[in-house]
Amino acid sequence: MASLSDSSFAAISEYFHRVSGIRLTASKRALVLSRLQRLALDQGIGDLDEFVRLLVKGQLPAGLQVSVVDKLTTNETYFFREPAHFEDLRRRIAERQGSEEFRIWSAASSSGEEAYSIAMVLADKLGSAAWRIHGTDLSTAVVESARQGLYSLERARNVPESYLKRFCLRGEGPYEGQLLIDRSLRERVEFQCANLMKELPALPMFDVIFLRNVLIYFENGPKADIVRRVIGRLKPEGVLYTGHAESLAGLNLPLVSRAPAVYQHA
Length: 266
Ligand SMILES: C[S@@+](CC[C@H](N)C(=O)[O-])C[C@H]1O[C@@H](n2cnc3c(N)ncnc32)[C@H](O)[C@@H]1O
Known about the structure:
alpha/beta; Rossmann fold; 7-stranded mixed beta sheet; methyltransferase activity; S-adenosyl-L-methionine; SAM-dependent_MTases_sf; EC 2.1.1.80
């Protein structure tokens, strides 16, 4: 059984904080150990302390550094998570005026369930009108899987039956037990890597931004920086959704709360 010394845990925490902005607390130690063990063994390195030493000195291949970040991020997500936001979105679309392209950003999109849930609502409510969704995430692994739009059927239990019929293809043969998001939706959803802690890639202005269940990993300073950076891409009348378990209280942000976890520019 591999072990991780106190100083190696401190070093990997520091490294991950530098790269992602997220602090790994002591409670994450067993998780770090189990997630890095496989990667280290694949490199023929049985000693995790040695693996961490090479990592922080930048002496591991670049691709492997990306894999470490992929392993240490928490990507839990599911379709139609926190349904109140989808109700709010439906209502706003119904009240919307004008025919400009309607754009939504899933700003920590993980494996894509959030972005495709939004796409189903837009396809339902806006049909063939102009709309587009961008999904971004720090982890290259989840961005790649989001692009595929292929999920196990079990993960689709919150997808309304009518949406399953209209927007998902049930896998057959080798794809039995899986569903594929219909091409008409996939074509309107674009995924790319972006680190919310760093300068953002070129992105358009958005009507709605989903920034959910990612702020929870940050302390107040970086959390406020992320929100400021993200709302720089929000249109004047736009809406920001955060996770219901996340608080923006005390961050002194130029936002007003419209409902729980629903914000607009002040
Ligand atoms: C728990 S998932 C939330 C997914 C989705 N928004 C939801 O609410 O279901 C958090 C995601 O944030 C991403 N993440 C963590 N730090 C990030 C950063 N600095 N920049 C961009 N994404 C980040 C992780 O890779 C992970 O996929």
